[in-house]
Predict the 3D structure of the following.
Amino acid sequence: MGTTRQITCKQLLKELTDYLDGSLDRDSRVQLEAHLAKCPNCWVVCDTTKKTIEVFRGMDPYPLPDDVKGRLMKALQRRCGHAGHA
Amino acid sequence: MIQSSSSQAVLNDDLELVGQARRGEPEAFPELVNRYERKIYRLARHITQNEEDAEDVLQETFLKAFANLSQFQGHSKFYTWLVRIAVNESLMKLRRRKADKVVSLDEPVETDDGDVVVRDIAAWDPNPEQQYGRSEMNVILTRAINSLPPGFRAVFWLRDVEELSTEETANSLNLSIPAVKSRLLRARLQLREKLNRYFRKHGDNTPDHL
């Protein structure tokens, strides 16, 4: 077991995307989490970036406008030979 | 990533529907269209930022998917395959509009990692989405994402909303993996900053810099 290397705020930012995606190797993740535990600013940036992704992921796909849906179905019928669902 | 049993069921079901559509069963392909038309339309709206183009992309995506069903190997999810077709169509629309001064996705953007700066650090409420009604949230999020440069917007959308992998996003947009990662970081940080004013905890107004 070696000692944990300390990382700076700038290094944390460079690795933030891999950290949030769960693709950091274990040592880098431990270093990053040690920094987060001590640095309130980085903790807030990490937390709010994570929430940013979550709110976008939860966004509803708005319904297809009726006229757009109607033209899509017509195009499918013309080219593929079936009408699709209403 | 954790895959729920219900989403796994949808994936298996997609493959089954693709098989049925290939065999000429008339209800199968319309069911696939029904499943994904809203998401494909939304993706096209966000990349092209033009309603007419998005509708063309929607139609072309499903028509091309139908015409090329035999080429779908089943190595990726059916939806990921559809997304790649939709992204290609959207990029073609963007390129055609280049003459009208619309910035293309593959135009170079600043990718130097050395100067990422974070401003406006403020804690958010634990459940920021609960502060707003559904339609109000959609307006806030749409406005925020539409203000990103096109190259950032597409990467963020494919990675974080459509949940494509970094490699799939890179392939879909003809970008390198480091370029995807760099754009994704910038997109995430810019969006975070844009949402700060809506979601910050009441009274948390700490001006700070990293």
User: Anything to note?
Assistant: The CA atoms of residues 93 and 99 of chain B lie 11 Å apart. The radius of gyration of chain B is 19 Å. The longest helix of chain B spans residues 177-199.
